[in-house]
Design brief:
Number of strands of chain B: 9
Oligomer: heterodimer
Mean pLDDT of chain A: 93
Strand content of chain A: over 45%
Number of helices of chain A: 0
Low-confidence stretches of chain B: none
Shape of chain A: globular
Largest interface: A-B, 24 and 20 residues
Number of helices of chain B: 0
Helix content of chain B: under 10%
Low-confidence stretches of chain A: none
Distance between the termini of chain A: 37 Å
Order of helices and strands of chain B: EEEEEEEEE
Radius of gyration of chain B: 13 Å
Distance between the termini of chain B: 37 Å
Number of strands of chain A: 11
Largest sheet of chain A: 7 strands, mixed
Order of helices and strands of chain A: EEEEEEEEEEE
Structural class of chain B: mainly beta
Structural class of chain A: mainly beta
Shape of chain B: globular
Radius of gyration of chain A: 13 Å
Largest sheet of chain B: 5 strands, mixed
């Protein structure tokens, strides 16, 4: 079974802090994604990566950056956390034959 | 620009089949129909997808109409653990950064 793990299930940070969210997949998938999910707004793509050191902006990249130094790990960075970044953050890894996306359990981030 | 339309909620009796409809009247020839579900406080879970033929796997069956404008996800023997929000998505498989866009979904409640 594909496994996607995220570093924390719950996280509380203060405004202005730098926040790192990590995602690891164990299936050698090329494509990885970071989404945020908010009530009434559905799933929104922040960034994706289709190879090591390769990244592309999604729909809402402002205030975020990403890092992919190794194929299995895709990190989301909030440079200076703000209260409007309080959300559920979901990482996904995509299988390249049937293009199924496998999600991690999510990180519920609260910025106070 | 919602591409799919689903009923907001439905109830199902435990042990009975659950039939979840989805309309996607503007689907393009190269777009697949994907189904995901999200159990409360968890990441979305891939269920099944198809292009034009009916598909079946260990979780569910997918019936796509001949004109491809609608489809039905069938959970053959619903259990309490199938209580979740079910999302029907149309997307092109194989494009880099091909995000998932979740609409409102159908909230399924399986009752004993």
């Amino acid at each position: 079974d594909v496994k996607v793990t995220q570093s924390s299930r719950y996280l509380v940070k203060r405004t202005g802090e730098k926040v790192f969210l990590e995602c690891v997949q164990d299936m050698d998938h090329e494509n990885m994604f970071w989404y945020r999910q908010d009530p009434g707004l559905g799933l929104r793509l922040i960034y994706f990566s289709y190879d090591v050191k390769m990244k592309e902006k999604g729909d809402i990249p402002e205030g975020y950056s990403v890092s992919r130094e190794k194929k299995e790990r895709f990190s989301l960075i909030l440079e200076s956390a703000s209260t409007n970044q309080t959300s559920m953050y979901l990482c996904a890894s995509e299988e390249g034959l049937r293009y199924e996306q496998y999600f991690g359990p999510g990180t519920r981030l609260t910025v106070t | 620009d919602a591409k799919t339309t689903q009923p907001p909620s439905m109830d199902c009796a435990e042990g009975r089949a659950a039939n979840l409809p989805c309309n996607h009247s503007t689907i393009s020839g190269n777009e697949y129909v994907y189904w995901y579900r999200q159990i409360h406080s968890q990441g979305p879970q891939y269920i099944i997808h198809g292009l034009k033929n009916n598909e079946t796997n260990e979780m569910a069956s997918l019936i796509i109409t001949e004109d491809r404008k609608s489809s039905t996800l069938i959970l053959p023997h619903a259990t309490l653990r199938d209580t979740a929000v079910y999302y029907c998505i149309v997307r092109v498989a194989g494009a880099a950064g091909n995000k998932l866009t979740f609409g409102g979904g159908t909230r399924v409640l399986v009752k004993p």
